Amino acid sequence: MAKDRSGNRSGREGGGDLRGRGPNKPAHGKPSYGKPWQKKPGDRPRRPEGAAPSREFTDGDNDKPWEKRGRGAPAGREDRPLHQDRPSFKPDRPHHDRRPSPPPSGQWERREAAFEEHGEVWIWGIHAAAAAINNPKRKISKALVSRNAAHRAGLDPEALPKYAELLDPKEIDQRLAPGAVHQGIAVRCKPLDGLDISDAAMQPEHPLAILDQVTDPQNAGAIFRSAAAFGVGGVVLQTRNAPLLGGALAKAATGAIEKVEEVRVVNLSRAIDALRDAGWKVIGLDGSAEQTIDEAFAGPEPLAIVLGAEGAGIRPGVAKACTGLARIPIGAAMESLNVSNAAAIAFYEAVKARGAAIPPPKPAAIVAASDDSDEDAETGETD
Question: Is the pLDDT of residue 336 over 60?
Fold first, then answer.
């Protein structure tokens, strides 16, 4: 009769319970003798390496346990010793112990998405935070400001709003997400309400931008900045697979998220169908398209421009919903453009195609000496 194996049957001396606990296993499941295949006091002798199977080492006729159960031998196991067929021991560990390690120091730099807290988002950077403070639609609950940044943002450090707190740049670092380039100022506020797609369709005088899974906050922020520069009325994003308007995105936009409407939709294809039903021309940018953007943008219809993620481009279902596809003609030296650069070119072409008035030149910037070098050195970047 085959010898009973310890830990495989309950209710016998030397056995274990239904979870495989044996006499040498404590209640928490971790063995006190090390690895389970190592020899233990009172255990049967191990088969020497290379020795033929025998009753002494293999529990009699059960040398290959899968044969007794009527199954074929697993691939690669025909000649392996019996103890190698046992499942490796994996002690129970709390779920949080299996979390991936954080990325190395500096890997979050410039790519940190919006930092949420209590249903609000943090906006940092001189231009982005100052624009949020000056936007009457913003509901700001907290602001962290250094003395030098307060001057640069047009605030009086001696008479700050009630929600603002005067801190050193290093103290602001500890309050924000890793890698946040705050330049000495950050505000926490409620997200803006934005527009519904049906409301956006009722404003045909301004083009729309539609972002198909553009998830990088730097690219999305740069697109908002170009949209504000060229008079785009709104940016359409999905409720999922799109970054929140805060954090690194808001800083890259340098205040543009306060000027360009955010339009959130659940399904981009249905949103495009709604625009087309309202008389809009929806053109997706695709490097393999036959017509160029100047040809595709021509006409009196309201225009919406679809931009896809870098590499993947516009998804097939979204492309199929568009009125047509167009390309930006570029030389053979480069395969494609960065999505934010492509957006700027497309927005300019859209404004030009509709005969919009050319804005006057801006006054020359006056660069004055300031004592804010400590904050720029602290963050390593300026707007």
Answer: yes
